[in-house]
Specification:
- By secondary structure, this protein is mainly alpha-helical.
- The protein has seven helices and two strands, in the order H-H-H-H-H-E-E-H-H.
- It has helices at 2-13, 22-27, 29-45, 49-55, 61-75, 101-110, 128-131; strands spanning 77-82, 85-90.
- The longest helix is centred in the N-terminal third of the chain and has 17 residues, at 29-45.
- It is elongated, with a radius of gyration of 25 Å.
- The N and C termini lie far apart (79 Å).
- Residues 118-126 have low confidence and may be disordered.
């Protein structure tokens, strides 16, 4: 497993990286072994660099998004993107140990190799939780009951 990780990691440093087909790499058993090694590294040592390397090995954005979303769901992490590199960070989310890479890859292929987008809330009606809540009324400190006598604006000298 470590050997497969080293092979996939070496693709990041290789100039021939652009010639590698991202789809074949993602569906290869080599990538799945490297991913399982990186997951083991995270679970034992809390090391995120192996996972970040495996996400950033792809040139195509859709494949990076798929790998990042799968790792997020599988391990309960949060992913952020900056300048074509993806970073992972720990959260309090519960990991999903039952999430299978094979099933997720089949759904990804069925979806036309497009990552699933996060659901957008409808603009028609506001949600029930937010409709009942209103912002607190603000009271200017000069008009407040908490203002001490003799303060600014009372007309009295101290």
């Amino acid at each position: 497993m470590k050997e497969s990780y080293k092979l996939v990691e070496s693709l990041n440093k290789n100039r021939l990286k652009t010639l590698i087909d991202s789809k074949k790499l993602l569906f290869s058993p080599l990538y799945s072994e490297a991913l399982s090694f990186a997951i083991e590294q995270f679970l034992t040592h809390k090391n995120l660099t192996c996972l970040e390397t495996l996400i950033n090995v792809f040139e195509d954005r859709q494949y990076k998004l798929f790998a990042a979303h799968w790792v997020e769901e599988r391990l309960g992490l949060k992913c952020s993107a900056k300048a074509e590199t993806y970073r992972l960070s720990r959260t309090d989310a519960v990991p999903n140990d039952k999430l299978s890479l094979k099933v997720s890859l089949e759904l990804f292929a069925k979806n036309g190799f497009k990552s699933k987008e996060s659901p957008q809330p409808s603009t028609g009606k506001p949600s029930a939780g937010k409709a009942g809540r209103k912002g607190a009324k603000r009271v200017d400190m000069l008009d407040s009951w908490a203002r001490l006598p003799g303060c600014y604006g009372t007309g009295k000298r101290q």
